[in-house]
Target: Sigma-54 dependent transcriptional regulator/response regulator
Amino acid sequence: MATILIIEDESAIRRVLVKILTEENKDYSVTEATDGLQGTELVKDNDYDLVLCDIKMPKMDGVEVLTAIKKIKPEIPVVMISGHGDLDTAVNTMRLGAFDYISKPPDLNRLLNTVRNALDRKTLVVENKRLKKKVSKNYEMVGKSELIVIIKNIIEKVAPTEARVLITGENGTGKELVAHWLHEKSNRANGPFIEVNCAAIPGELIESELFGHVKGSFTGANKDRAGKFEAANGGTIFLDEIGDMSLNAQAKVLRALQENKIQRVGSDKDIKVDVRILAATNKNLKKEIEENNFREDLYHRLAVILLNVPSLNERREDIPLLANFFAEKIASEQGTATKSFEDEAIKLLQEYDWTGNIRELRNVVERLIILGGKEISEKDVKLFASK
Model:
């Protein structure tokens, strides 16, 4: 049921609005406020889907009410009700965040269309927040070990900046997770997050993948195509396994970093891009530089902030938290009951040599969920998690 608050000091206008709305849709629940101050207090104490607010009112005018609502609950759409002499003010309220305005006396179709559109907008905003929260939870960093706490603290400080970050660590430690967290906590969180696995793209195609190409630039280029940098405009591009990128592609990435410009393959036209670059590698880039496999100037451009993700063997105290986290997640995905771990089972998991790190632990937990008993025992671990 959609809840609507009408803030209007003229009782005749309130009655008309209530009549129109309730006759249009029996699921509309309408509350009335006779002045701006009362309306603002009601917004503080209740969750409304839409507010209809007059502009000229005693105690608190419509502009003040709109400003207050945007501070209290910015997701609520506010439609202003304007008299003939208030049209200029009504238009100005749009700049302050009003969804729309309707004139007095209210036109039936105009009012209903505006209300429907505003309620649809509210639904989209709420759904977007829910999905964003769900995505953020999927990339949650689990752990309370000293090394993980240090990484979390660094992310909190670095994420809101535009600083480039080079993430290092063994395979399976969660470098992608760190990149997602940096993006989610940044000022670019509402922009795209584009991930490129440099190791998975053939060397001859990496430039086209990153920068796009024009029709006819090479065999198979049948039409113009935008690259990942253009797709990431206004957001973040994550260059995973950057140590596997060709030297030629490295040179173009360096130019993009220096000038915020790229060129599609086969074109000499500059395209401006606004992206934040995060990179990750499991290689020792300083050694790669010595062997002339990686550009030193690009390294220094990327490594403004260095973040080394510890191996699971370095943070064994996090294994109980991680095992239970994966158990709940896997059970939810499979639609089964969550299984708990006996203390001895956890102790045994903490003794293993986790060469595959977090990724390997997740696979082992999934195996135990499928094959183990109602409670994962030490015997289950010995049987099904053997190395």
Observations:
- The chain has a mean pLDDT of 90.
- DSSP finds 16 helices and 14 strands in the chain.
- The chain has three domains: 2-135, 142-310, 313-384.
- The longest strand covers residues 2-7.
